[in-house]
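Give me structure tokens for this 396-residue protein.
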Amino acid sequence: MAYKIIEFFDGIQLVPVTWLRDDQKECFWPVNEKSQIKINKMIAEMINPDVNYWELCPVKRIMSSSDSFKVGIEKLRLAERYSEIDTVNSDDLSYGIKRSKHHRCSIIYSDGEGENHERLKLKKSKTFKKISTPTYSSTFKEICYPSFPKIFDKLSSNSESEPSTSPDKYFKTSEMKNPYSKKENSTQLTSNTQPILKSVIKNINQASSFNSQFEIETEKLKKTVTRLVVKINSMQDQIFEMDNKLDKIMNLVVSNNKCASMDIDEQIQDDFELPIKIENKLIDTEILLKEDFRFYTRMVNKLKIVGGTDTNSVIRNILKTLMTDNLATMFSFAGKRKKKSFQDTLPTFMKIIIEVGRYHKNSVTNEDIYSIISKWLVQATLRKMLVQILNIQLLQ
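Here you go.
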């Protein structure tokens, strides 16, 4: 037997004999394969089990066996209805198998005891209907119709008795007597089409007047557009002249500021040297900035000259001019890691940095400036180490 119908603990399945172990208590099953179509194909082709990847499933009992896959599938269907398949009749086993036409047409006769069965196969006789052909009698009479009388013959025959009735005159009189003559039709058409023609002429006149008004309005629009273009060109020339004048004024202001900043730089350098290197001098400048407004304005004007490509570079350059990296290692923005708080210890410096940052970019916020200062203070130790390494390399 090539196949076995096995009852597992979770269902019934048709399995090849090669999938069973020798003791027939365990069976290999492709657990990793999710497609039932592929599993049925593997069962039909009796593929050898893959011991490394297939799973051993315990067998509850073997219900039946079969030689072919087709009979095994039918037994599997019966196993879902009956507990013992081998005791079922062969007629029940063939339930669901496609039967031939002769088997369906056969009639089963049985005696009283029901032991001997005889099959009498009846063949359906094909009956053909005869098509009745028409029969004609020998005495076939031809149907003859009378000939249609000719008008001109009658007219010619009656010409002697009535000379005035010629064919031409006959047709002329018939045309005169016709109630639907051409003249009457023409008069009716003219009477009906007169109001339609009048309405069409009115519409044409209205369309022509509308076109003339449209042309007049388009000409007016063209004139107004040309006037506007001339005005715009003159305004552009005036704006260009104003821009040149503003550039000259800005150059004068910048030159004056540079001169003033040079004086301020000299005054500040006389008071304190920048960048500040010692903590005590930094605190003294903080106190002086808080108390002396003139010194505060001088410091702001000096730091406004410090430039940069963007807000980040401007604030970093301001901090470089104020203090050295060695002094910056003693501070952190919020006072973490046992360092002094830059925000609490130097509030006036913070105020100056925010004012100068907004001078360069008005839309910058306090939080953006705080984050730039905190990053610069954190990176002070790294900058200090790089400077030391460069100094050592230069000495060597």
